[in-house]
Amino acid sequence: MQSNKLSRFIVYAVLIYFAVYYLLPLYVMLTTSVKTMDEIRGGNLLSFPMHITFAAWSKAWGSACTGVECTGLAPFFWNSVRMVIPAVAISTTLGAINGYILSKWKFPGSELVFALLMYGLYIPFQVLLLPMATTEGWLGIASSTTGLVFVHVVCGIASTTLFFRNFYVGIPDELINAARLDGAGFWRIFWRIVLPMSIPILMVTLIWQFTQIWNDFLFGLVFSAGGSQPITVGLNNLANTSTTVKEYNVDMAAAIIAALPTIFVYVAAGKYFVRGLAAGAVKG
Amino acid sequence: MIQSTRPAQYGFAERWLPRLVLAPSFLLSLVFIYGFVAWNGYLSFTSSSLLPNYHWVGLHQYERLFANERWWVAVENLFKFGILFIGVSMLVGILLAILLDQKIRQEGALRTIYLYPMALSFIVTGTAWKWMLNPGLGLEKMMHDWGWTSFQFDWLVNPDMSIYTVVIAGIWQSSGFVMALFLAGLRGIDDSIIKAAQIDGATLPRIYWKIILPAMRPVFFSTLMILAHIAIKSFDLVVALTGGGPGFSSDLPATYMYAMAFTRGEMGLGSASAMMMLLTVSAVIVPYLYSELRRGR
Amino acid sequence: MGALAIKNVTKSFGDTHILKGIDIEIDDGQFLILVGPSGCGKSTLMNIIAGLESPTSGEVHIGDRIVNDVAPKDRDIAMVFQSYALYPTMNVRQNIAFGLETRGVPKKEQEEVINRVAKMLQMDHLLDRKPGQLSGGQRQRVAMGRALARDPILFLFDEPLSNLDAKLRVEMRTEIKQLHHRLKTTIVYVTHDQIEAMTLGDRIAVMKDGVIQQFGSPQDIYERPSNMFVASFIGSPSMNFIECHLAEQNGQIGVSLTSESDARFVPLKDGAKFAKRVGQEVVMGVRPEQLDVAHGDEMALGCKVMLTEPTGPDTMIFTRINGKDVTARVHPRDAKGPGEVMRLALDMGKVVFFDPKTQLRID
Question: ABC transporter domain: from which residue to which, for each copy (chain C) (predicted)?
Fold first, then answer.
């Protein structure tokens, strides 16, 4: 069994090699963010910080310049929070109900609606930008958090519906029929029977929508201005603001701040995501 | 059952409630997705520049687009980026999935490590890699410090190579996701097939090559679709990493569209390029969706 | 009007005709079995009775009303599903109470019903468990309990035992029968298992290809199957079909039977009935137990045993008559080994005849 041992060794070596590859950027971001600029210039990417300082973090959060204003990322962070909560809640709710109808209450034409939504999943959002910007101007929600939430809901319905629909297809129709015979109607079946069974897919959808919307840049860039810009726009402005000296430690601290919520969600609930994604997305 | 049986529905509530409840989402999609696609299509035939106008100019904007060097750079970049990004992400993802499927200790931890980049915004990824690939202080300096003084890595500022930095960062971010999809697929394969093949005397690599990977065709296709979709709409990564530069050497259609529509005051050109993106996606997606929906019945 | 009447019900999807004109009527308290091979339309018919699918044409009467346009919940029926369809997130108590709750039954009354049902099915100890924590048999019991809680005028059972193992299936079969005796409610029961059909039913509808092949009492269907499909579908081992030629010899109408070692002319019991068909080919249907060891001298045919299959109480003997494989059911002590010759006698009073072309029974 000598060759077996060798091949096990190779398997682990490759796996660990890739683990290092995925982790290195995180390491670099973290160490860079706690170094001083002098140390950054003096050392190199991988050198360990000599004097750990959180000055870059507080600057990134509170006083770094993102263009003409120097407010740090804090306002952008809270903009994102204000945007992500309603957008995730509304798109997930609509997705759950749509999925329920498209799997358990089919009617003539419901397959067409489903096909329409599915195709919407793949449309490059660039084709929506100009008309959406014009319309939001008319509606008076351009450059506002409301406008951003609206865009995210419209563009999120397709994926949330698909997730829930694929999950609900797996719930036996007999269960719905039993509930109908028990006298329950459309809403009662949803609340009492279907929704309590939906925890796994609910987790997937919440995580998915949260990361998608939190990480979105395109819509944030096009549909928001000054007071409502999300954190991705803030980070990009911060990192690309051409001040006299480039402060990489502040950039890295800002990048980590922007990434923290989604990383936290992944580490805390990632296993539900992988499990549920396997059930939903792979089946297509 | 021979056909999908639609349940009998009685009374106003059962018959109309589902349609009524589905209607808002349907209308939202119809108006704000399909309506807007049509609207954007219409804009692409007008002389809109800084502001939209509805002066019909036929295919003029498309002629301008096809005569525009920057557009062709963006298209060429999309091909380079798409092929490398999809190909390498697939290879790495499949390799990691197969290796992780060998009853590995600490599988959960490794999986989390491979997958976490997917949780990041492309803006975060771009910012991080921009720093690491920085010609002055990044990778290059590290190699110099380690004694390899002739090492040069200037892709970020080299117009011929800048698009490949986008490829590198893209693969780093997305290959873990491919791994997750394939791992899930592998876990779905019936163990007894593998046992039967082992009894037949097949070696493990052979089992994977001949039996398991062919069985993963559907996963392969849906992953391909997802990656192609990510590639075509790639925008954030380019903006954060290279800003499309140097010059416009690392432009992609998505950044080109944004530049024309929102910074250069060329709305007609921007909408025409968006339509080209839509057509490209449709050419790939429509046949795929059609076969999926057929099969799903 | 009886408890359930189905009048000329059809169901089609485009050109696919699932049900082609079904007529059934049963009385209060009867146990109706819908039996047939898969794809025969029995489940569709059941769903139409329940109101889960609607018929393309025809009428469904439950009690004294036409229920075509009545929602399932208002038909005063309860159903036990093949997969049990227990609500997975509710415990047994909540599962049973759900139907009562939606109908606005007061809490106190709900409790009483749950206790009554739990006692009846001996599942008091399961009330606080979730379906996932129950065995197959227990789930089956809860599904029945949920149906019983409602006290409807019609119970529907959709292959309720098909997911149980063999031993449990027999136990639950008996239990369902006892329940029916005690409650005396009308039951419609779908199954593909002919033993379940025979043991449980008062009335059996044998279905194939969307058509009722025969509708009658179990005994009637067993003894006087209306066609070769019903004859072969009901009874295990299946009825033997022996092709033979009707002839007249010495003033008696009968058939010639040939085995590998013997040949004999066997007269029919009331041959006069078949006078018109003399000279024609017919198929003689013989149940295995109608082919027994001859103890006297009567009409026995020497048959060479090819194979024996002991089942315990009986032994099956496989042999050939008129070139067809034939099974005989004999007492174990009479059975002989392969290669030996046994003298087998036909119970000519019970055999039936079929027309080989139409496959219908000849009277």
Answer: 4-234
User: Over the stretch C29-86, which tens digit does the pLDDT of each residue have?
Assistant: 999 999 999 889 999 999 999 999 889 999 999 988 999 989 888 888 999 999 899 9
Task: Answer whether A157 sits within 8 Å of B114, measured CB to CB.
Answer: no
Q: Report in angstroms the alpha-carbon separations of C41 from A261, B77, C48.
A: 55, 59, 11
Backbone φ, ψ for residue C225 (5° rounding): -60, 140
Longest CA span, chain B? 82
- Chains that contact C by 3+ CB pairs under 8 Å? A, B
C35 phi, psi to nearest 5 deg? -130, 150
Residues C27 and C173 grouped into a single domain: yes
Q: Are residues C53 and C150 in the same domain?
A: yes
Contact between chains at A125 and B277 (C-beta distance less than 8 A): no
> Which chain B residue has its CA at the smallest distance from A263's CA?
B119
* 3-state SS class at C256: strand
The interface residues of chain B toward chain C in range 3-22, judged by CB-CB distance below 8 A, are 3, 5, 7-8, 10-11, 14
**Whether complex ipTM tops 0.90:** no
CATH code at C344?
Answer: 2.40.50.140
Distance from C-alpha of B94 to C-alpha of B182, rounded to nearest angstrom: 6
Q: Which residues from A are below 8 Å from C82, CB to CB?
A: 174
Whether residues C227 and C248 fall in one domain = no
Six token digits for residue A142: 């351009």
Distance to chain B for A160, nearest Cα, Å:
11
DSSP C201: -
User: What single string gives the DSSP state of each residue in C91-142?
Assistant: -HHHHHHHHHHHTT--HHHHHHHHHHHHHHTT-GGGTTS-GGGS-HHHHHHH
How many whole angstroms separate alpha carbon A231 and alpha carbon A241? 15
Q: Tell me, what CATH number does C154's domain have?
A: 3.40.50.300
Q: What count of residues does chain C have?
A: 363
Q: Give the span between the Cα atoms of C94 and C115, in whole angstroms.
A: 12
pLDDT in tens, chain A (284 residues): 466 788 888 889 999 999 999 998 899 888 888 888 777 777 777 778 888 888 888 888 888 777 777 888 888 999 999 999 999 999 999 999 999 999 999 888 888 888 888 888 888 888 998 999 888 888 888 888 888 999 999 999 998 998 899 889 889 999 999 999 998 989 999 999 999 999 888 988 998 899 989 999 999 988 887 788 999 998 988 888 766 667 888 888 999 999 999 999 888 887 777 676 665 544 43
How big is the CA angle at C27 (ends C25 and C28), to the nearest 5 degrees? 140
Q: Do C85 and A196 make contact, defined as CB atoms within 8 angstroms? A: no
CA distance B186 to A233: 38
Which residue's structure tokens are 């890699």? B129
Query: Is there a single domain that holds both residue C91 and residue C174?
Result: yes
Mark yes or no for CB contact C85/A197 under 8 Å: no
Question: What structural domains and CATH numbers belong to chain B?
Answer: 1-43 (no CATH), 61-296 (1.10.3720.10)
Domain containing C34 equals: 4-233
> Nearest residue of B to residue A27 by CA position?
B128
Instruction: Judge if C274 and C327 occupy the same domain.
Output: yes
| Longest Cα–Cα distance in chain A | 76
Q: What type of residue sits at position C359?
A: Q
CA C35 to chain CA mean position, Å: 5
Q: How many domains does chain C have?
A: 2
In angstroms, the CA C320 to CA C327 distance is 8
Q: Does one domain contain both C311 and C355?
A: yes
Chains touching A (3+ CB pairs < 8 Å): B, C
In angstroms, the Cα distances linking A207 to A160, A269, A277, B38, B218 are 11, 8, 11, 32, 24
Question: For the CA atoms of chain B, what is the radius of gyration?
Answer: 24
CATH 3.40.1700.10 applies to domain A74-280 = no
Q: Which residue of C has its CA nearest to A178?
A: C85
Claim to verify: residue C16 and residue C66 sit in the same structural domain: yes
